[in-house]
Recover the amino acids of this structure.
């Protein structure tokens, strides 16, 4: 009987440990893109570009009433029925990126003399395709800087 | 004469052979579960369809055993068991040779009918071989309980080492050995059983057994889906983890013998329910918590099922019918639980998959890796998720490896974070299904409590 009671206590302890572990974990959350979030950390050209692109994606997602993650996933060719057409995505991305370039210039991430060039690139480039490739966008900003 | 045989080495050997056949027939309820991922790749099918390889066997055992209840007492036990072993052996060979899913499902159904026959005939034969209804029932009960607990582990090892066909191929010689033991029984047991309504006496114990076997769906089936398909373990690693179940089932035997019978049933059902609750509350893909929960389930099984099985058996004139009835009820419990739990899990997984995909993308976008990698990897990972929706096991490491994760520690760390996030999210999608399994065990406990004075264990 003592062993059985000990087993039942062990079962209760196991469940309590699981609940405590669950409570102590910080789950990954999908953030609201319309709210300001902590900027992507780090210095150098890559971190600067990431801040601009990620903020731009947030801005575009906010305009489309979706999340940054859902917007990125919808960029995959053949990803099933899309919620938006290509023109809508391009328009939202362009608007989001232009705003993030403004903010980057305001923060001092992008020098004032360079900002107009970057804006011109954002206005003319096929953004969705560039973001899908990642490399091309990086190269593009790398060339303009 | 049978008693003399039992006292000799040869007699014990025959008892062992019959017990192995009984154990294999019970293990077959879940033995193929760890091979299901390999089967749906081999037959290029869906999870729902491939699950029929498991369901067909259990449903066939349940239907055939319940049908046999009205008939089995009119037949010679050696004839029933020999017929069962021949059918089981032939169907096992057919399963091993199957080249289409539906042929395999058909062969599994026939194998289930053979299992019902051999299980129905085995109890009187063990009684005759041991010359004691109590000893025969004890061997039968222990072989059945241990076999049921051993199924997934045994199947996992055989699948990994020899392939899925070997699971069925190795059963044929075991059935043949059982057949030799049965044929050699010189004092054929003929039990004169009249039609009596005494089976109603065992209804509480059988109800309890059916509910506890239903609860086992959480351990025998959900566990495998979680560990192999979601956590990505190999069949042999999954078998190693789940081997804690038969080990603790056996380890509980001395405790079960020392406890009052009702207490063993209450304690066993409670431990099974708590073990399944612990599986439902797994905070992450943690093997430590998993092993602890499985150990509780194994002890719960070892405490409750042997006592309830004895209570469900009429060791007098109703031996073969009561044995056949309890076989049917426990497999019916398994099938009913699968029928309830499978759609629940099927409805929980797609939204969990979507949540996991979004969270994984969030992990990637926030990862300290280059922009040149993160978005292409996120899009490639979506391709892997699409494979998962089509019934394949996604390889989420592949997009990372293609971008150099084997050389880049930052990419490797992002890969590990992403995989952990997905596993944790999908693991929690199993919660409602494990809770339903726990509810089956809790209902079994409730039945035991309600009928404590009316023959649940005597």
């Amino acid at each position: 009987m003592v062993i059985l009671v000990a087993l039942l206590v062990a079962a209760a302890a196991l469940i309590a440990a699981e609940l405590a572990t669950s409570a102590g974990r910080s789950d990954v959350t999908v953030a609201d893109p319309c709210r300001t979030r902590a900027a992507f950390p780090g210095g150098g050209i890559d971190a600067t570009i990431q801040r601009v692109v990620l903020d731009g994606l947030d801005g575009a997602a906010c305009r489309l009433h979706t999340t940054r993650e859902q917007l990125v996933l919808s960029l995959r060719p053949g990803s099933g029925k899309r919620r938006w057409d290509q023109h809508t995505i391009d328009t939202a991305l362009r608007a989001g990126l232009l705003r993030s370039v403004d903010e980057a210039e305001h923060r001092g991430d992008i020098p004032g003399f360079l900002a107009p060039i970057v804006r011109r690139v954002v206005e003319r480039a096929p953004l969705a395709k560039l973001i899908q490739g990642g490399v091309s966008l990086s190269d593009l900003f790398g060339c303009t800087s | 004469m049978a008693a003399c045989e039992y006292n000799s080495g040869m007699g014990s050997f025959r008892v062992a052979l019959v017990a192995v056949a009984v154990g294999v027939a019970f293990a077959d309820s879940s033995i193929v579960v760890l091979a299901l991922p390999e089967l749906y790749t081999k037959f290029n099918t869906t999870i729902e369809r491939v699950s029929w390889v498991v369901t067909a066997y259990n449903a066939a055992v349940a239907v055939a055993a319940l049908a046999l209840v009205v008939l089995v007492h009119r037949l010679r036990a050696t004839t029933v068991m020999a017929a069962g072993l021949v059918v089981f052996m032939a169907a096992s060979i057919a399963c091993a040779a199957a080249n289409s899913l539906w042929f395999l499902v058909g062969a599994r159904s026939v194998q289930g009918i053979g299992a019902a026959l051999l299980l129905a005939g085995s109890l009187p034969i063990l009684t005759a071989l041991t010359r004691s209804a109590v000893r025969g029932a004890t061997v039968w009960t222990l072989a059945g309980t241990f076999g049921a607990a051993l199924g997934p582990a045994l199947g996992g090892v055989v699948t990994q080492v020899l392939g899925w066909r070997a699971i069925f191929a190795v059963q044929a010689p075991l059935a043949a050995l059982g057949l030799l033991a049965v044929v050699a029984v010189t004092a054929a047991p003929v039990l004169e059983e009249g039609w009596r309504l005494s089976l109603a006496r065992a209804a509480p114990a059988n109800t309890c057994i059916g509910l506890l076997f239903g609860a086992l769906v959480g351990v025998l089936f959900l566990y495998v889906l979680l560990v192999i398909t979601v956590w990505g373990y190999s069949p042999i690693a999954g078998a190693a983890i789940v081997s804690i179940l038969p080990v603790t089932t056996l380890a509980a035997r001395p405790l079960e013998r020392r406890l009052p019978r009702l207490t063993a049933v209450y304690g066993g059902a409670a431990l099974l329910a708590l073990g399944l609750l612990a599986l439902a509350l797994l905070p992450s893909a943690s093997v430590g918590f998993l092993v602890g929960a499985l150990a509780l389930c194994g002890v719960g099984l070892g405490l409750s099922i042997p006592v309830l099985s004895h209570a469900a058996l009429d060791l007098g004139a109703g031996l073969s019918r009561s044995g056949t009835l309890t076989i049917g009820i426990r497999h019916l419990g398994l099938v009913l639980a699968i029928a309830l739990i499978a759609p629940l899990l099927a409805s929980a997984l797609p939204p969990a998959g979507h949540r996991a995909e979004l969270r994984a993308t969030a992990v990637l976008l926030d990862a300290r890796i280059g922009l040149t990698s993160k978005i292409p990897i996120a899009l490639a990972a979506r391709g892997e998720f699409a494979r998962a929706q089509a019934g394949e096991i996604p390889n989420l490491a592949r997009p990372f490896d293609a971008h150099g994760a084997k050389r880049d520690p930052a990419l490797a760390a992002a890969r590990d974070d992403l995989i952990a996030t997905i596993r944790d999210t999908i693991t929690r999608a199993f919660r409602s299904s494990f809770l339903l399994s726990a509810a089956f065990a809790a209902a079994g406990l409730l039945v035991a409590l309600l009928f404590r004075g009316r023959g649940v264990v005597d």
